[in-house]
Amino acid sequence: MVTNIRKSPGTMPKWALAYFGLTLVVLAYGFYAAMVAPKEATMGNLYRVFFYHLPHTILSFVFPYLNCGASFLYLYWRNRNVERAAAADAFALASAEITVLYASIGLATGMLWGRAAWGIWWAWDARMTTYLLLWLLYVSYLLVRRFSATGQTAVISAVLAIFAAIDVPICFMSIRWWRTQHPSAVFGGGDNSGIDPSMVPAVLWNMLAWAMWGAFLIGMRYAIERRRQRQSNAHALGFLGDETPQAFQEVR
Asked: Averaged over 105-114, what is the pLDDT?
């Protein structure tokens, strides 16, 4: 239950608008950098999907730990501080949804790249299988949030989030632990790993751009979920009408 509530103004803060504008600029420059990067010797222009596949895949390994950390905080606070627990639960949901989004893009771009490089859309190698499992785990998390019994949703999903995070290091290390059809690690994969230095700026700009975009989406989704919590609590208390009572205070 959210204890301190007031009617949300429904407008985006100026700093959020500024951040959104800056994110669009960085995204545009990242696209430009990817398009003007040198053509790859064997795959030609088809390799440019790499500038989108790599950032989304790497970030889909980062966002699960935001979800996991928020889930731990929810379990810690749920019997100590209801307000903080509700905020942690909202952040856990937001980060899980963006994990599914980024993992879906990682899967889709990987399949496009695999079709061009190998002539097949999918190969059941270690990296692809563990990554598909990661995607399925967070899809399952969202399904639990949607269909579990009222009152148990946050606890069940928090436990699932902690379990799901275990797959992240397995997926990340899969191309180092097992022989796999997936290419070896581009960075830090050995003596022959890495890309041409002229391509590195495009990689870094797109990594930054999609990290900023992911952070923006998580923030927006968190704000929406917090508003939903406030509205649900007001309905439960029977206080929600045309105007929210002035006694409700904004969560700080």
From this structure: 87
pLDDT value of position 49:
87
Number of helices followed by number of strands (H, E) in the chain: 7, 0
User: Are the C-beta atoms of residues 196 and 38 closer than 8 Å to each other?
Assistant: yes
Q: Residue 142's pLDDT band (boundaries 50, 70, 90)? A: very high
CA distances from 48 to 78, 188, 194, 199 (A): 46, 21, 15, 10
Contacts of residue 17, defined as CB under 8 A and 6 or more positions apart, other chains included, come to none
How does the average pLDDT of the chain come out, rounded? 82
**Which residues on adjacent β-strands are paired with residue 80?**
none
Residue in 216, 249, 196 with CA at minimum distance from that of residue 40: 196
Q: Where are the domains of the chain?
A: 46-180+198-223
Residue 235: HSE in the Cβ half-sphere, 13 Å Cα cutoff = 6
Please, are residues 1 and 236 in contact by the beta-carbon 8 Å criterion? Answer: yes
The whole-number average pLDDT for the span 224-247 is 68
Query: 207 in the Ramachandran plot: left (φ > 0), alpha (ψ -120 to 50) or beta?
Result: alpha
Phi-psi sector, 120: left (phi>0), alpha (psi -120 to 50), beta: beta
**Phi, psi angles (nearest 5°) of residue 44:** 65, -140
Report pLDDT digits (tens) over 21-48: 999 999 999 999 999 888 876 777 777 8
